[in-house]
Design goal:
By secondary structure, the protein is of the alpha+beta class. The chain is built from 9 helices and 7 strands; from the N terminus they run βαβαββαβαββααααα. It has helices at about 25-35, 55-70, 95, 110-120, 155-175, 185-200, 200-215, 245-255, 260-275; strands at about 20, 40-50, 75-80, 80-85, 100, 130-135, 145-150. The strands form 2 sheets. The protein has a 4-stranded mixed sheet, sandwiched between helices. It has a 3-stranded antiparallel sheet with strand order 1-4-3, with no helix packed on it. Strand 6 and strand 7 (about 145-150) form a beta hairpin. The protein is globular. The two termini are about 15 Å apart.
C-alpha cells in the first residue's frame, strides 16, 4: 500500500507530539510492565571490524541514524488514558547514542563478558534512551561494534538494516560526502497504515472468521513433573542434526504434498504435542516478519 510521510500527521494527538503505538508495540509494552528483567526485550547485534577505522565518522553515522529515524528516540507515557509514544529531541539523547572504550588486553572470555554486559543494559522507555552503539577498541587494532535497541522499536530484520545504514553512511563520510536526510517514510507511517487496515472491511472479515474458528479451543495442557510457581522466561535449547538421507526423505514428503520442508517439521512438532497432551485441537505459532520491505 502506497503512503507518504504526511500520513503520520493524522496520528498526532493533542499538542504534545504524541503518537499511538502499533499493535506489536502495545504487546511489548504490556509485557514489559510485568517483566522481572526488562533487558529480556533488548535487541543486540555484534560485529568484528578489521582494518583502518575512522571512529569519528562511525560516531557521526550512528548519531545520524538516530537523528534521521525518530522512532529510535521515542519515550512512552500515558496521555488521555492511553499509552502513547512521543519523539524526544535529538539533543536530549545525542551523548547517549555512542560509547567507546579502549583496552590494552582483553581475552576471549573478557570480550564475551563485555558483550553480555552490553546486551543486559537497561534501556529506558520513559526517557527515550532506547538505542545505543558501543565500540570496543582492542590492542591488536581490531574493533567490536555492538548495537543495542529496545524490541519495542526493532526486530531482527531491522537490526540488520540499521547496520547496513550505518555502513552506508560511514562509506559516504569516508568518500567526502555530506550526510543528508533521505528517509521518505517513518515507522509512524506504518502505524497509520496499520490503523487504516484494522478499520477496513477486509480486516474485519478476517478477524470475524478467526474468532469463530478459535472460539471453542480448550486450554492446552501438558503433563508436568512439578507445579509452576510463577511465570518466567527461562528455557533451554536442544540442538540436533539430521543426516542427508533423512533430510532427503523429508524433502520428498514436502514435495509430494506441495508444502515446504518447514511445514513438515511443524506438523511433526504438532504430532508430538498431541502425543503428550492427547488433545486434537492444538494451535501453534511461528515467527514471521510479515512484510516485504525493511
Amino acid at each position: 500500500q502506497k503512503t507518504t510521510s504526511n500520513s503520520s500527521k493524522a496520528l498526532q494527538t493533542g499538542d504534545n507530539n504524541c503518537f499511538p503505538l502499533s499493535n506489536a508495540q502495545k504487546r511489548i509494552w504490556l509485557s514489559c510492565q510485568n517483566a522481572q528483567d526488562e533487558s529480556m526485550y533488548n535487541m543486540f547485534g555484534c560485529w568484528r571490524l578489521q582494518g583502518s577505522l575512522n571512529i569519528n565518522f562511525l560516531k557521526k553515522s550512528c548519531q545520524q541514524l538516530v537523528k534521521e529515524h525518530s522512532i529510535l528516540r521515542t519515550k512512552y507515557m500515558f496521555h488521555s488514558d492511553q499509552i502513547q509514544q512521543s519523539i524526544v529531541p535529538y539533543a536530549d539523547v545525542a551523548e547517549y547514542v555512542f560509547n567507546e572504550i579502549e583496552v590494552n588486553c582483553y581475552s576471549d572470555s573478557q570480550i564475551s563478558d563485555w558483550k553480555l554486559n552490553i546486551a543486559q543494559k537497561q534501556l529506558d522507555l520513559l526517557s527515550g534512551k532506547i538505542f545505543q552503539c558501543h565500540l570496543l577498541i582492542l590492542k591488536d587494532g581490531s574493533y567490536i561494534l555492538a548495537l543495542l535497541v529496545h524490541h519495542i522499536v526493532c526486530d531482527g530484520l531491522s537490526l540488520q538494516y540499521m547496520c547496513q545504514l550505518i555502513s552506508s553512511m560511514y562509506s559516504s563520510l569516508v568518500g567526502g560526502e555530506t550526510l543528508n536526510h533521505h528517509s521518505k517514510l517513518s515507522y509512524f507511517d506504518y502505524i497509520q497504515w496499520e490503523s487504516d487496515f484494522c478499520h477496513s472491511e477486509r480486516y474485519q472479515k478476517s478477524e470475524k472468521y478467526w474468532l469463530h474458528q478459535l472460539e471453542h479451543l480448550s486450554e492446552f495442557q501438558l503433563p508436568m513433573t512439578e507445579d509452576i510457581v510463577e511465570n518466567n522466561f527461562s528455557g533451554e535449547k536442544l540442538e540436533f542434526s539430521i543426516d542427508d538421507h533423512c533430510f532427503k526423505f523429508i524433502s520428498e514428503i514436502a514435495k509430494q504434498y506441495g508444502v515446504s520442508v518447514f511445514a513438515v517439521f511443524s506438523t511433526v512438532f504438532d504430532i508430538l504435542l498431541y502425543r503428550y497432551s492427547q488433545q486434537e485441537n492444538i494451535v501453534t505459532g511461528t515467527l514471521g516478519n510479515g512484510r516485504i520491505a525493511p
